[in-house]
Structures are given as structure tokens and as C-alpha cells.
């Protein structure tokens, strides 16, 4: 699949099957990620690959964080949170290792570099015929979850990429026209 075809056809599948993607394909997707634009060559991206019981460890951390944020959350909601990471055989957690006091590169540009790397992973996975869903939510920003994953104080999770064989066909993309998104300069004067 060529690059333009991959970009135009990429969609997140509605669900993922339990088949784990080949290690060589995952590594190639990560190689694509580290080619992302990176102002200042800070290389702020880090990747945490969660498989097997490691996904349950993430789920436990997410459930405990939810219970701490909302002590009145029903057990069914906490259990649902605990099981979220089990929806895919592999979760690639993309992490921004930020340098908040960098003299030239603002933190937002560092985040954007990691977001670009995250999309590169998604696109590479799609080009290989596998499915990928980008998830975030409160658990991506909850310090308790970041600590449970062993992340550093200035690290931020940019995304949880759920990866597996696509189950079902993604619904067709809504009709969109490029002209609907173009901005124009106001008239002079």
C-alpha cells in the first residue's frame, strides 16, 4: 500500500480480535514513529508495549485511579475500566518525555512531535493490514496511572494505541470536502 492510499483509507476498526501482531511489524511501526518531525531533535517519544498480563496491570491501575477520583463509582463502572485494556492483544502506550524548561522548544511542540510519532505508528500498522485504535481519556492523564506504569514526573501519555487484527469493517467515512475546512484571509483594508 502506498503512503497516500494508506492515509486516505485509514480508519479505526470497530473492534479488535485477540491475534497478536508480529513483532517485526511492531518494530517497523516504531521505526516509522521515530522518523516523526522533531523540532530541536529532542526525540521526546517513548513507547511502552503492554501485552498479556501487563494489560491487566494497566487495567488495575485504571480501575484504582477511577475509584480514587470517584469514590461513589459503582463497581460495574470500575470493572468496566479494569477491562478496557483487554480489548486488544497489544497496547502501545506513547509517552512524551517532556523537557519543560527547554530554552528553545516549548512543551507543546514536544507533545506535537510525539503525537506525530503516534499517528505514524497507526499509519504503519494500517499499511500492514492490522487494526489500531487511538485511546486517551482521563486514565492517560491520571498521575496514579502514570506512576503505576513507571513513568517519570515530566512524562505524559499521548495515547494508548490498541493494536490487533481488525474485527469487522469500519463504517464508511462521513462525506467530507476539503473546501469545508479551508480558511481564507479576510479582505485587506
UniProtKB/TrEMBL annotation:
Superkingdom of source: Bacteria
Region (Disordered): 1-20
Residue ranges occupied by any Nitroreductase domain in the UniProt entry: 8-164
Cofactors named for this entry: FMN
Any matching Pfam family: Nitroreductase
Keyword terms of this UniProt record: Flavoprotein, FMN, NAD, NADP, Oxidoreductase
E.C. numbers: 1.-.-.-
Family label: Belongs to the nitroreductase family.
Name of this protein: Putative NAD(P)H nitroreductase
Provenance organism: Aquibaculum arenosum
